[in-house]
Write a structure and sequence with these properties.
The chain is α+β, with helices and mostly antiparallel strands. It contains twelve helices and six strands.
């Protein structure tokens, strides 16, 4: 039979998994990998480059804002986000079909007030729901600067309640696919304005590597993980990268973004 060949391929597969696991546990970015990452201090330098004078627009500023002004969540969390008046959400929130989507709540003047995230990574959602004795609904206020950015975008694009916050350009009632949404961030923003095709996972790594070393208590580290729809284990094994840690003076990281 093929028992010998099966053993060889099984061992080969096991060795590959072990190698990848060991690389993850070393939290390293090597050579070519490092070229496709921005450290967080470079990520925030991109913001001024998104001005109208530099071929930016309110859509790009809003998309950049939700992934830099608050802890970096996954693509799905904002891809499936709809705009809704706060009063309507309070009335409708108990309806289970509303939990399929996430919401940017706005007041009667279209001023954003907070985000509600119902639909996100299942393992994080279960853990968060168990701890908070709810369905895993995540709620967060927004910094005033991000409210300004989102309000400008909503008004310019004439968006209204029920529209997706970042819906298709020709139909705001339909969401982007996961790949298209992520590409807007990596290529539409970071590659275009910094020259580095920073992926969303790369952005999460950059955020975690910059902020996690500064947090001293387990409770606060766990809160940051919840704020990102993640876990401390995932932070430490997957996202934290030594080369993006600002305290690592021998990282080999070279600043890539000029100040405007």
């Amino acid at each position: 039979g093929f028992e010998k060949e099966q053993r060889i391929y099984s061992n080969l597969g096991s060795n590959i998994v072990t190698t990848i696991d060991n690389e993850l546990k070393n939290n390293e970015l090597k050579g070519r990998q490092l070229k496709n990452f921005l450290r967080w201090d470079d990520v925030i330098k991109v913001k001024p480059w998104l001005s109208n004078d530099n071929n930016g627009n309110s859509f790009l500023r809003a998309l950049y804002g939700v992934y830099t002004a608050i802890p970096v969540r996954r693509a799905m969390d904002f891809r499936l986000m709809k705009i809704m008046k706060t009063k309507k959400y309070i009335k409708m929130k108990k309806d289970s079909k509303f939990r399929k989507f996430n919401y940017l709540l706005v007041n009667d003047k279209s001023r954003p007030t907070k985000i509600i995230v119902n639909n996100y990574k299942e393992s994080a959602k279960r853990k968060f729901g168990k701890k908070n004795k709810n369905y895993g609904e995540y709620e967060s206020g927004l910094p005033e600067g991000l409210k300004d950015t989102l309000q400008e975008y909503i008004r310019e694009e004439k968006l209204h309640g029920g529209n997706f916050l970042f819906g298709l350009e020709n139909n705001h009632n339909s969401p982007y696919g996961d790949g298209g949404f992520s590409t807007m961030l990596s290529k539409g923003i970071f590659n275009t304005f910094s020259g580095v095709p920073m992926t969303l996972n790369g952005l999460r790594s950059s955020y975690v590597s910059w902020h996690l070393p500064k947090i001293k208590t387990y409770r606060d580290k766990e809160k940051l993980a919840f704020d990102m729809g993640s876990s401390l284990d995932e932070f430490q094994k997957t996202y934290y990268k030594t080369a993006l840690d600002p305290e690592n003076t021998n990282s080999g990281y070279v600043t890539k973004v000029k100040k405007m």
